[in-house]
Amino acid sequence: MKLCMIGTGYVGLVSGVCFSDLGNDVICVDKDINKITNLKKGIIPIYEPGLEELVLKNYKNKRLNFSTNLKESVKKSDIIFICVGTPTKKKNNSADLSQVYSAGYEISKSINKYKIIINKSTVPVSTGDEIEKIISKKVKKKYFSVVSNPEFLREGEAIRDFIYPDRVVVGSNDSKSKKIIKNLYSPLISKGANYLSTSRRAAELIKYASNAFLATKITFINEIANLCEKTGIDVEDISIGIGLDKRIGGRFLRAGPAYGGSCFPKDTKAIVSTADKFKTNLSLIKSVIKSNNIRSNLLLKRLSLIMKNKIKNKKISFLGVTFKANTDDMRDSSSLKLIPYLSRKGANIRYYDPTGLKKEFKNLKNVKFSNSIHESIKDSDLIIIHTEWNDFKSINFKKYSKNKKLIIYDMRNIFSPNKIKNLGLKYYGIGR
Ligand code: UDX
């Protein structure tokens, strides 16, 4: 099939590349000339394991192309995916849909035969209805269908999540598009992916409800971790103990810093705002947002206690600063609260991240990037494991054990407390 992806951000690029790898002809379109020129040279704008290889392979065999010409790309395609950003509006926390609607309008100008317009951007319930209205101002309804097909790709695991999804959700209100989209996904269905065909509005809400539920699960275990710290229990035992109940499930029960990234913080706010619009009070999700917002303060309070309130001039090493491992994404990372606070308190901070230096810390006093783990942690008073990169799991702390005052604050619980303590070092984790 001939596909067009509008927007070459995370979702558009990963989905476009994977669809081309499944044998479709795909054009990825973006307004950003620089991005498109780079993509044609094989320069990938994001860090995502496996993506570069797939881009090069499919661009070479001509199933994948890049363009800035939206009109021509839409004309050539049977299915058009809208994959543009829906950031949070500052004034009321709702999703800013201007890019989605403008894509809908642009598409409407180039419909020369029946086409399916699939919305993959995360959007509030009824956005599909609006896109349909926009397009029907220019095009008769029999020439197009508007479908919702949310993505559930995790950064760092996006290619695997695309090829082996837990489920594919497609929301459409007409049987013609339903049949075509099921056919598009047939290579994944034949490998065992669950396929849910539902209404357009339901698909839109499934996306927000999924992310809100996962954010709630994480916040739940983070609050239980707070209780564990006061009661001498290891939260890891609680995660295992409750996760073995199949009704609960063991995944997404890792206690840690506040959740971050491009989705959970944005989508929890947006679903609350949508519910407000429909006069429904999502009090549980509101509490989750509040609890997550104060989580960094709680962690900083504990850090002050660990350091006996002496932070000034202390050498603090941060290992990993992105919102989680296997990504270079800094959006809503808890390090954006932790590092500036400690810098204001007069700490000397060195940070190491496998994805390199971060512009976000460039202007902070006494915050420096180190080129290696060793550079970052040598002579430190405190080491903070902020993200769970595999690179950190094999650090040989024996080498550093001469410094008996060295403290490890393992915010991802990747180390065994006893092993570290047996080296004579002080160890603190989350909820243990
Ligand atoms: C998420 C959803 O998982 C994905 O389905 C959706 O489409 C996009 O948003 P992503 O933001 O890439 O994906 O990361 P995810 O792995 O879900 O983690 C989100 C945040 O939760 C991170 O800050 C992570 O560190 C945190 N987290 C996750 C925990 O603290 N504990 C966990 O057990 C899992």
Bound molecules: uridine-5'-diphosphate-xylopyranose
Using the alpha-carbon principal axes, give the shape: elongated
- CATH class wording of the largest domain: Alpha Beta
What structural class is derived from the secondary structure elements? alpha/beta
Number of domains as seen in the coordinates: 3
Helical content class? 40-55%
Major sheet details: 6 strands, parallel
Strand order of the largest sheet: 3-2-1-4-5-6
Beta fraction = 5-15%
Number of strands: 14
Please give the count of helices.
17
- What is the CATH T-level topology of the largest domain? Rossmann fold
N-C termini distance: 53 Å
Description:
This protein has helices at 10-21, 33-40, 51-60, 70-76, 98-108, 127-136, 158-163, 175-184, 186-189, 200-231, 235-243, 264-277, 283-306, 335-344, 373-377, 390-393, 417-422; strands at 2-6, 25-29, 64-67, 79-82, 115-119, 144-148, 167-171, 194-198, 315-319, 348-352, 367-369, 382-385, 407-410, 426-428. Strand 13, helix 17 and strand 14 (426-428) form a beta-alpha-beta unit. The chain has 3 domains: 2-198, Rossmann fold, CATH 3.40.50.720; 208-293, N-(1-d-carboxylethyl)-l-norvaline Dehydrogenase, domain 2 (Orthogonal Bundle); 296-429, Rossmann fold (3-Layer(aba) Sandwich), CATH 3.40.50. Helix 5 (98-108) runs parallel beside helix 6, helix 10 packs across helix 12 and helix 12 (264-277) packs antiparallel against helix 13. With 432 residues, it is an alpha/beta fold. The strands form 3 sheets. It has a 6-stranded parallel beta sheet with strand order 3-2-1-4-5-6, sandwiched between helices. The chain has a 6-stranded parallel beta sheet with strand order 11-10-9-12-13-14. It is elongated. The protein has 17 helices and 14 strands. 42% of the residues lie in helices and 14% in strands. The model has no long low-confidence stretch (mean pLDDT 97). The site of uridine-5'-diphosphate-xylopyranose has 20 residues, from helix 10.
